[in-house]
Amino acid sequence: MRKLERYPVQGANALWQLYKTVSFYKVLKNFIIIQIARYTPFLAWKNWLYKNLLHMEVGAYTAFALMVMVDLMFPERIKVGTNSVIGYNTTLLTHEYLIKEYRLGNIIIGNEVMIGANSTILPGVTIGDGATVAAGTIVAKDVDAGSFVAGNPMRVVFTAKEMLERKQEAE
Question: For position 120, which CATH number holds?
Answer without folding.
Answer: 2.160.10.10
